[in-house]
Structures are given as structure tokens and as C-alpha cells.
Amino acid sequence: MPGPSRWLETFRTPRLRPEFKFRLDDGTPVQVRPLQPEDAQRLRAGFEQMSQLARRRRFLADVKDLTDNQIAEFTRLDPIDRAAWGCMNRERPREPGVGVARYQRINGDRRSADVAITVLEEYQGRGAGMLLHACLHLTAHRASIRRFYYDMLRDNQRFIGQIKALGGTFEGRAENIERWSLPVYHRARDVPDTTSIGRRFSEIMLKLGRPPAA
Fold this sequence. Notes:
The chain has helices spanning about 5-10, 40-50, 50-60, 70-75, 130-140, 155-165, 195-210, and strands at about 20-25, 30-35, 80-90, 100-105, 110-120, 145-155, 170-175, 175-185. By secondary structure, it is an alpha+beta fold. An eight-stranded mixed sheet has the order 1-2-3-4-5-6-8-7. Helix 5 (about 130-140) crosses helix 7 (about 195-210). The protein is globular.
């Protein structure tokens, strides 16, 4: 049973700092912030490091290169209709980064947005995707977005399993692509805690609401 102060924390909505430090599950120190236009080269370099399978799962097709228009779309953002967060390994600043997560509000539905998350293979399984995902939820909630949608290849069972564990709803299937949705969470209390994934996501939300370490 959590103590009174921790219990109260679960009801609070964290306010994200413009840029902050965080440690992944294995202790890897990362710097987290919204994407900026000057990140274009990092995005290109990160894309080059992605396997063909990872590219197909991210773009739902076999993509060989990122176009200038795609790079511009990924980096010219605002915190209302299109937002994106990225993180990089503070011990390896010359690397492209660890991962990125972004949402785009759906035309004609101001309370919903499509989401995409990418974590480089080397960093998968360390909690980077959950961290960036949580940042998206908190950003979207402040922008009055209340539901996220995810289009995923059917063979991407790891990510589908995560969305299920977080309370996801199956919305339909078109050929080999499944569409799932989640409510936009803004406090740890609301995240389903019946699975280890839900508990981890809730814990990340709690950490995001605490003062930065000295």
C-alpha cells in the first residue's frame, strides 16, 4: 500500500519541463526534449541505422529514404496539433539519438490524434519508448486531445501487446494493419495497473511529476 504522499502523487498531472534529464530502466542517462528543426540530420542518421523491418513497422511500408518533405514534417511542430519528443544518450552525444515519438491531430476530430513511436534497436526494451509515450500523453492532454490512435502491422506483436496492456481498444483491421486506440492519460492514477507494463507506465508518469534531481 503506497504511503499518503505517494498516493496523492498519483492524482496529480505532471507538468513537463521544456527539457530534462531522465534515466532509463537500465540506468542509461538520457536528455529528453521536443524535436526541433535542427534535429533534421539526427533523424536522417537514425533512419540509416534502422533495419528494414523497423522501417516497415514505423512507416507501414518498405521505405528506403526520408524525403526533405518528411523531415520538415517531422521537425516543424507545435505543441497543439503536432508534437514530438525525442531523447538522446547523454554519454554518447554524437549518436543520432535513442528514439522519437510524435502525434498529429486528426483532421475533423479535434479531440483525437494519430501516434507513431520509434526507438532504435539498440535501446529497445530499456523503457525509452514508454518514456516518450508518456511525454506525448501529457502534451496531448494539455492540448485538449483525449484519444490516441495507433496503426500497427499485425506482426508488431510487442507494441500491440503494450497498447493492450495500457487499456487499448481494437478499432479494426485493413489487410495486415491493425488500428488500436487509447485514452490520453494525464495522471498515474488513471493508467491500468493490472500488468507490469501498466505499472511501469504509471511509475514513469510519477517520475515525470517530481522535481529534477540536483
